[in-house]
């Protein structure tokens, strides 16, 4: 069974620019994934406001009975999050690697327009390699 | 998991793929030359180079953050040091020095002793107003804007104009708040 259920990338204004589904259960249609992305964007922002400490960067991990959600926000405001099996390890490292792939294969693609949905084959290709790779390999990074 | 330690410019420079420096220099030269042919006016070329740099900068900043593991800078002084020591090293293989802070700490100069863009360049008399490396100022402006700093970047000294070094003046115009919700009137 796949440990990672799905991956989302949200631009800095809360629009979903990338969504990929890896599990068979709980597949979402486009509208639902868009809604979920903008909900997460708002919840992330609210969590920063609610935090009793200053300099809070928002929710990093949400744990539920049936899944974990790991979120990473780049300093430029782009958010990456994965939904995975509870207790899956090394997701922070994975998100970091995905961020690097995004900078290499999305932002460096001259035909990609900033803040728009990602349709880059090279990114898809490298992403699936990273996701498929044994998670032990991620440990070394 | 503890946050990853920031890497030095040298470490990042060593770990990323690079192109031959001469190819890079010549390609840039060919591009500037073409702009001069197309736009005819030196001022227009300066403007265009700056705009191209800006477009690069807004994308480059993410690569910089992803590969250097640099975290949020506490103040503008730290930002300046990071640009000079990590940023320039990582992308151009050179180090800049930060000098001439003003009293309020909102503007500084970046001095480049070495500049790979100009290795074979001599400015002809017809192009004296050309800021040959204007792309660099655009990159800085674009990159800083994406991490909520509006800046103005200008050339103060230029070896192609007979000065003894390259000097870029970076002035912080305003810091845009990045927290949501944005104020209603914005």
TrEMBL record, chain A:
Belongs to the TRAPP small subunits family. TRAPPC4 subfamily. Keywords: Endoplasmic reticulum, ER-Golgi transport, Golgi apparatus, Transport. It comes from Musa balbisiana. One of its GO terms (biological process) is endoplasmic reticulum to Golgi vesicle-mediated transport. It is found in: Endoplasmic reticulum; Golgi apparatus, cis-Golgi network; Golgi apparatus. Part of the multisubunit transport protein particle (TRAPP) complex. The keyword Cell membrane does not apply. One of its GO terms (cellular component) is Golgi apparatus. This is Trafficking protein particle complex subunit. It comes from the Eukaryota. It holds the Pfam family Sybindin. The keyword Cell membrane does not apply. The lineage of its organism: Eukaryota, Viridiplantae, Streptophyta, Embryophyta, Tracheophyta.
From TrEMBL, chain B:
InterPro entries: Bet3, NO_sig/Golgi_transp_ligand-bd, TRAPP_component. It is found in: Endoplasmic reticulum; Golgi apparatus, cis-Golgi network. Its main location: endoplasmic reticulum. GO terms for biological process: endoplasmic reticulum to Golgi vesicle-mediated transport; intra-Golgi vesicle-mediated transport. GO terms for cellular component: cis-Golgi network membrane; cytosol; endoplasmic reticulum; TRAPP complex. The keyword Transport applies. Keywords: Endoplasmic reticulum, ER-Golgi transport, Golgi apparatus, Transport. Pfam families: TRAPP. Gene3D superfamilies: Trafficking protein particle complex subunit 3. The keyword Endoplasmic reticulum applies. It comes from the Eukaryota. Belongs to the TRAPP small subunits family. BET3 subfamily. PANTHER family: TRAFFICKING PROTEIN PARTICLE COMPLEX SUBUNIT 3. Homodimer. May play a role in vesicular transport from endoplasmic reticulum to Golgi. This is Trafficking protein particle complex subunit. It comes from Musa acuminata subsp. malaccensis.
């Amino acid at each position: 069974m796949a440990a990672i259920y799905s991956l989302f990338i949200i631009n800095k204004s809360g629009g979903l620019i990338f969504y990929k589904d890896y599990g068979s259960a709980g597949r979402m249609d486009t509208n639902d994934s868009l809604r979920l992305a903008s909900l997460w964007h708002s919840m992330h922002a609210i969590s920063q406001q609610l935090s009793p400490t200053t300099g809070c960067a928002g929710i990093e991990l949400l744990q539920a009975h049936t899944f974990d959600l790991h979120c990473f926000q780049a300093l430029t405001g782009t958010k990456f999050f994965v939904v995975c099996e509870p207790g899956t390890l090394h997701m922070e490292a994975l998100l970091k690697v995905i961020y690097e792939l995004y900078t290499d294969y999305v932002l460096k693609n001259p035909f990609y327009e900033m803040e728009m949905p990602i349709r880059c084959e090279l990114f898809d290709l490298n992403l699936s390699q990273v996701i498929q790779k044994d998670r032990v390999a991620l440990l070394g990074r | 998991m503890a946050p990853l330690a920031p890497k030095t410019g040298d470490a990042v420079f060593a770990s990323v793929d690079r192109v031959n420096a001469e190819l890079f220099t010549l390609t840039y030269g060919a591009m500037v030359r073409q702009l001069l042919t197309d736009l005819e006016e030196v001022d227009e070329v300066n403007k265009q180079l700056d705009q191209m740099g800006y477009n690069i900068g807004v994308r480059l900043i993410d690569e910089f953050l992803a590969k250097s593991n640099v975290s949020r800078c506490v103040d503008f002084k730290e930002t300046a040091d990071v640009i000079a020591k990590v940023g320039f090293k990582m992308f151009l293989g050179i180090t800049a020095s930060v000098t001439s802070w003003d009293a309020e700490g909102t503007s500084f100069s970046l001095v480049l002793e070495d500049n790979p863009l100009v290795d074979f360049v001599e400015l002809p008399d017809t192009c004296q107003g050309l800021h040959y490396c204007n792309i660099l100022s655009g990159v800085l402006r674009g990159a800083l804007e994406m991490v909520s700093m509006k800046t103005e970047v200008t050339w103060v000294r230029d070896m192609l104009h007979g000065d003894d070094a390259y000097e870029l003046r970076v002035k912080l115009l305003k810091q845009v708040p990045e927290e949501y919700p944005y104020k209603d009137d914005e």
